[in-house]
Amino acid sequence: MVWLLWLSLVHASTGANLRGAWREAARGDTPAAILKAFHDGVLKPFNPSLLQRFPRDALGSWVVLEPTSPESGQDRVLSIYPEPMGSITLYGDNGPIRTLALDDFTAPLHGHGRLAFRLTSGSGGAEPILLKFEHSDMLSAPERFELQNLDDYLQQDSNWLAFATACFAVMVAMALMALCFAIMLRDMTFAWYTGYMLCYAVVQSIQTGFLFHPLGLSWLAGSEWLVGSSAVALSVSFAALFINRFCDLQRHAPALRVSIIALGFAMPLIVILRCSQVPALVLMAQTLVNPVLIIGAFLLLFTALVAAARGSRQAWFFLVGWTPLLVLTAMTSAQVTGALPSLDWLNDASIAMGAFEAIVLSLGLADRALTMRRDRDSVRVLADRDALTNLLNRRAWTEAANSMLAEAIDKGLPIALLFLDLDHFKVLNDRQGHAAGDRALVTVSEVLSTELRPNDLLGRYGGEEFVAMLHGVNQEQAVQVATRLCRRVHRLEIPVDQSDLFLSVSIGLAMRSMGDTLETLVERADQAMYYVKLNGRNQVHTFERRADMVGTSYKSRPANESGR
């Protein structure tokens, strides 16, 4: 994968080898005494190229690093990775040189994702380097050390900066895009995703120092631990609320839905307790947060597995994005206890996996949106179509016919409306049953659909009545079409009873005239159809309204009349 290539570039070691030793600080310690103890071999040895945890809960810890391959005559950089949450002091022969921390903005050389001490060429190439890990109430994570010449350090630092910037840019871009969709679609699923992704980006940017260098958010200095722990808790809360809607737990995992929603509201409550500044409440929050986080993370994983097993397509997207992060988090937690000391890339892998999860969940949201759109379109089709004949029902046909009529009026095109009613259909139903009647309706509707053009509008008006709007045809052409429909239906030879009587259709025709609405057009075609019913059936009659005549006249054309 691409991110593995990035990590290989970021963690490519080009610096000199180091030998290290350490011990916890005690009262009365002096830099000279610690260096003497180092030369005497009293301190605990460790490999600086592997992750090592140094306690800070008392007075801190002393660390001595000795280059095994000195490089004189050029500036070097001592980097400490990952960037520790507390401060570290670098000592020299004449007292402390400087103290660096995650939120320091005064150092001439800022490390990105690590602390960096620049050692000038005049400091000696093989002299031991003495560090003091100062006391801190924050949890101490393991660190490793690397000594490089300045050019190699700057190259590695620029690689990491490009890598981290790309990952954070992906997370923030996906989150902001989801926020736009949340506003446009009024769908809280996108909003919960936005909150989750932004909180995770804040967590990673604090742990790596990205918020301070290069972003330079100095106003967060001193409160990074509170902001980071709050962001962790809120990210789990947003993830719980997100998975509830994203994976449709009400449908696929209703038994777990209550627990997930409870988790979503419990985490903000813990954050509120932590920020209350009431000692008892703060202690309660600190006691609860880690157990709830662990339980919540595995609850989300288990819920996604259950939802996926029960048919939730989106749950698989959540699992693909969430599981690698959960594994990396577990491995990083194990490093605090001394496990996996050689896997120093886990912190950067968490950033890469955050970007990967952002992309996967965004694809899942897109898939969800497309699925919902398909479902909505299917429901709309079912709502617009007659269940038996699959023609437009009366409501849908009326909406489409109004649009067609308005377009024809704007363009000055002729419109013909046919009102069709099956002859003797009630007799067929009474004597052969409703199943036979349904089959006859389906057959007739298929014939009508075949005979009409694709741009003609055919619908079932109700019962055995059909309507058709013919676009861009004059009266003679409309009569020919209607006559052809009469013939085709009659040639189906659908028997009505035991006699030689077959199903046929009576058609009334009305042409659009000035001032017509759909209602008046349907009314005139309906009147023409009733005239057919009263005068022999199985033929076409045209309703005509003339300005120089009062009343109504009809032109009829029987089905057996010849036409073009």
TrEMBL record:
Protein name per its UniProtKB record: diguanylate cyclase
Organism taxonomic ancestry: Bacteria, Pseudomonadati, Pseudomonadota, Gammaproteobacteria, Lysobacterales
Enzyme Commission number: 2.7.7.65
Enzyme class: transferase
One Pfam family of this chain: GGDEF
Domain of life: Bacteria
Cofactor: Mg(2+)
Coiled coil (residue ranges): none
UniProt-listed PROSITE patterns: GGDEF (PS50887)
Listed InterPro entries: 7TMR_DISM_rcpt_extracell_dom1 (IPR011623), Diguanylate_Cyclase (IPR050469), GGDEF_dom (IPR000160), Nucleotide_cyclase (IPR029787), Rev_trsase/Diguanyl_cyclase (IPR043128)
